[in-house]
Amino acid sequence: xKIERRDRGWMKQLKTAFGVVLLLxxxxxxxxxxxxxxxRGVYDDICxxxxxxxxxxxxxxxxxxxxxxxxxxxxLRKLQDIHFPDxxxxxxxxxxxxxxxxxxxVLQYPPGTGFVLALFPAGFQVIPLYAAASVAIFAxxxxxxxxAVTRSAVALAGVFGIVALYLMINPTKASxxxxxxxxxxxxxxxxxxxxxxSAGAHRILLTAAVGLLIGLSVNFRLPNLFLxxxxxxxxLIAFLRARxxxxxxxxxxxxxxxxxxxxxxLIANAINAGSPFSTTYxxxxxxxxxxxxxxxxxxVLDGQFxxxxxxxxxxxxxxxxxxxxxxxxxxxxxxxxxxxxxIFFMSHPVFxxxxxxxxxxxxxxxxxxxxxxxxxxxxxxxxGLPQKASA
Length: 391
What we know:
By secondary structure, this protein is mostly helical. 64% of the residues lie in helices and 2% in strands. It has 14 helices and two strands; from the N terminus they run H-H-H-E-E-H-H-H-H-H-H-H-H-H-H-H. A two-stranded antiparallel ribbon has the order 1-2.
């Protein structure tokens, strides 16, 4: 009994130590973020801020990104600030495309990132966005620490949280769309772990919640749609194998919730491209998939590759050593998601330091919470959900 109490006390001290380290990293992050400049000359930044400006000026009507609505010369001034050549020529505007069917020049990005930026006052939008995102990731790191019930689990959760917070500066700063995406990945990872530890109506509700979150993430970055691929494939295979109504309703709940979450992007596509399922993207983003040695090499030499390797190794380890049905289901979803996303991004003709970060972090957060649940004894669940998965 004395040894058990001493071990619990040691674990409490270890959790406290990691919590203090995470807090110090959060403070350091916010201090660094507070010095950022919104006018760093990146075309994507200007375009996301233009979408935010449209929402602040026109409300929901800001979904219409026709360049003719720039009658207050917001975009023109932003481009002049970075000495962009011919900023008044619509044909040369960065991250805009010409929609022949509607005869207008529109933003290529989905509206979610601009909407989140619009929640903050003009001129002070990026700093609070990244500060809020860092605080959210800090909260999920603390949640993981709280759920850890062994020394190994505490160490895993603590180190994971440190890395997750570091990533909120680099490479997350490379695109405004990644900051809100990171929050969705953390929450979706947690709910995915809970999903397969639940049964009945709770399972359907959690499936819908996961679908809704991934759908919402599509509004930040269109390629986030591929985050749903592993889930959709898993639910389809599960239905084809089981052929029962529970599997059918679970897949249907995921699909409907996904579409509901994507609704702002679908509406924006209808306004700007003429159809909900027409893209506003152009150029290299719509070229056919093609494997390029140069692109593959860039991924191998980038930090993203290490995160992906860790996720793959974690998947293999859990599949090899875990016999619980619920955990193996989680591993199957993550594995399918990784394979489909890697095929897409590795065959995309453009490399960026953040393209595979969402799938890497969704996979890693899911595996973390699944591993912590695996190590945990049978405790009352945070949300009153049953601990055992249905067969």
